[in-house]
Amino acid sequence: MKRLKLEPLAFCLIASLCLAGCGGASDPNAGAPPPLKVESAEDANVFQVEHPEKFPLIAAAEHVAASELTATATVNPDISRNVPVISLATGRVVEIKARLGDTVEKGQVLLRVQSADISGAFSDYQKFVADEQLARTQLERAKDLYDKGAISQNDFQVAQDAESKAQVDMKTSADKLRVLGNNNLDQPSAIVDIRAPISGVITDQQVTLAAGVPGLSSPNPFTISDLSYVWILCDVYENDLASVRLGDKADIRLSAYPDKSFSGTINNIGPILDPNIRTAKVRLEVRNPGVMRPGMFAAVTFHGQKKETHAAVPATAILHLHDRDWVYIPEKNKKFRRLQITAGDMLPGDMQEIMAGVTPGQQVVSNALEFQNTVEQ
Fold first, then answer.
1. What is the Cα–Cα distance from 265 to 113, expressed in whole angstroms?
2. Which of 77, 113, 251, 296 could be cross-linked to 91 through a Cys-Cys bond (beta carbons 3.0 to 4.6 Å apart)?
3. Other CB atoms within 10 Å distance of the CB of residue 43
């Protein structure tokens, strides 16, 4: 009986030992992912050469110049030189002798208008001319009678007054005809010629053939702009306004003529900023050499008062690649690094200014194109 009772207890102990042995042999990291392997990628801008002595180096020189600020701009007509062409006479257009974009001279006929105002003014003028002739004849007769004592002095003065008033009415009606645009008083006509008040270019046209002309009411038939002087309007950011001052000179390059440089003077700095892009309008007045057209894009360079120091290298040391400028600088273990820079203006002696990327005294490869062709082989 005792042996039978011990057998179940021994079985349980053996089972417990087996389970414990199996648990101790299991790997706790068996279900974890494999460790990551980090591989270093090669720098595409680093090149290793066997004989670096074949590529001469040169130290970047120091170039001191006034600070510069470049802003985008557009060409605009001078508002003070925009002159509207008006017709005081209302009527209908019967002929147009000029078109939008035409260059016209002062006094040139732009259009002809048939106007009832002119007809009425001519009718009044002819009546006043007849009245003046009658009054003058009566005055001459009264003078003869007065000299002979046939009439009183009062009657003679009445005749003088009538003739003076007739002359005033005739001159007033003649002036009205001239104001309406008809200067030929000897040939009555209902057609009035509208002439150019100044010489310039027609920059706006609001009239067509057979259209009505409303007189002083807008719109005006034409607008003529004197483009001998134009405005260059620049957008200058708020943070750069300290670099521009009234009266300073600036260099202007038109997108249409990038090889030509023009000079202008700052005559106005806008007092109000654009709240969206935080810029102020800076205006330059420029004498138009004949190539500046309203609407053209331009780049304006302002020269500040503060001096700045930049690097300068031979033009051959700069490589233009993928619309960017690069230089090659030496590194250890026969390696060279291609470094992106911001190139500036060309300088005397075939040197070029570097605005950013290289400091004075730093060594660069003197012939970047030759180096580039060698490493690409």
1. 43
2. 113
3. 10
pLDDT value of position 307: 77
Closest C-alpha to 111, from 218, 226, 196, 216: 196
- pLDDT of 40-65, one tens digit each? 347 788 888 888 888 899 999 998 87
What contacts 303, CB < 8 A, 6 or more positions away? 66, 67, 68, 248, 249, 250, 251
**Nearest-angstrom CA–CA distance, 310 and 63:** 5
Locate 343 and state its tokens: 């190139």
Query: Do 306 and 349 contact (CB within 8 A), yes or no?
Result: no
Q: 57 with 316: CB under 8 angstroms?
A: no
Residue 68: pLDDT band by 50, 70, 90 thresholds?
Answer: confident
Q: How many helices (H) and strands (E) does the chain have?
A: 4, 21
* CB neighbours of residue 323 within 10 Å: 5
**81 burial type by CB count under 10 A (0-12 exposed, 13-18 middle, 19+ buried):** middle
Domains delineated in the chain: 48-66+308-375 (2.40.420.20), 116-187 (1.10.287.470)
Its pTM stands at 0.59
Q: Tally the C-alpha atoms within 13 A of residue 86's C-alpha that lie toward its C-beta.
A: 11
229, 78 contact by CB (below 8 A): yes
Neighbouring residues of 46: CB distance < 8 A, sequence distance ≥ 6: 331, 335, 336, 337, 338
Measured CA distances, 32 to 6, 29, 148, 272, 303 (Å): 44, 5, 144, 65, 66
Decide: 226 and 199 in contact? Cβ < 8 Å. Answer: yes
Q: If you ran DSSP here, which 8-state letter would residue 30 be given?
A: T
What percentage of residues in the chain have a pLDDT greater than 90? 59
CA 39 vs CA 32, 43, 44, 198, 260: distances in Å? 21, 13, 15, 77, 53
Please give the helix or strand (H or E) that residue 145 lies within, else none: helix 116-147
- Residue 321 corresponds to which amino acid? L
Candidates 176, 208, 195, 215; CA nearest to 91 is 215
Residue 331, amino acid? E
- 3-state SS class at 8: helix
For residue 40, the 8-state DSSP code is P
